[in-house]
Design goal:
By secondary structure, the chain is mostly helical. It has eight helices and two strands, in the order H-H-H-E-H-E-H-H-H-H. The protein has helices at residues 11-17, 21-24, 30-41, 51-66, 77-89, 98-106, 108-115, 121-135, and strands at residues 46-48, 74-76. Helix 6 (98-106) runs antiparallel to helix 7. The relative contact order is 0.12.
């Protein structure tokens, strides 16, 4: 679900994600979306590619809204991939983007499927889960 940001989306972020200010102008606020996400996630661990970014965003807003810390176990597929890449190929994993991990671990067809909706929450979550399962 897209969330209406409190600031304008920069060109850099639009270039990276394809998300424009027009796309989020009528989106719900984080105050509306976050409780729904917390209810959906229940007490489960979170899995994501560069989970520190997402977890930090969730925690910052959870603290602001609820006046307490958000605490969940989390697994970072980017860090797992870097470690896996180094162990299995004995080289540093410079290309640790989600798309890179998908290509290497799941194949070019999966990357093509992923790339059709890259940088969208559900799509990124589904593919982070797929590579998590592959590495575990």
């Amino acid at each position: 679900m897209l969330v209406k940001p409190t600031k304008k989306i920069s060109k850099k972020i639009t270039d990276l994600t394809g998300i424009t200010n027009e796309m989020v102008q009528d989106a719900p606020s984080i105050e509306e979306v976050l409780p729904k996400f917390i209810e959906f996630a229940e007490k489960l661990a979170l899995v994501g590619h560069n989970i520190k970014f997402d977890y930090g965003f969730i925690n910052e807003n959870y603290k602001r809204i609820n006046n307490k810390e958000f605490r969940r176990k989390k697994y970072c597929t980017m860090e797992m991939y870097k470690k896996w890449h180094k162990e299995y190929y004995d080289m540093k994993a410079d290309g640790a983007k989600l798309g890179d991990a998908i290509t290497e671990l799941l194949g070019i067809d999966e990357w093509s499927n992923y790339n059709n909706n890259a940088h969208r929450g559900l799509n990124d979550a589904e593919y982070a889960h797929k590579i998590y399962q592959k590495m575990v």
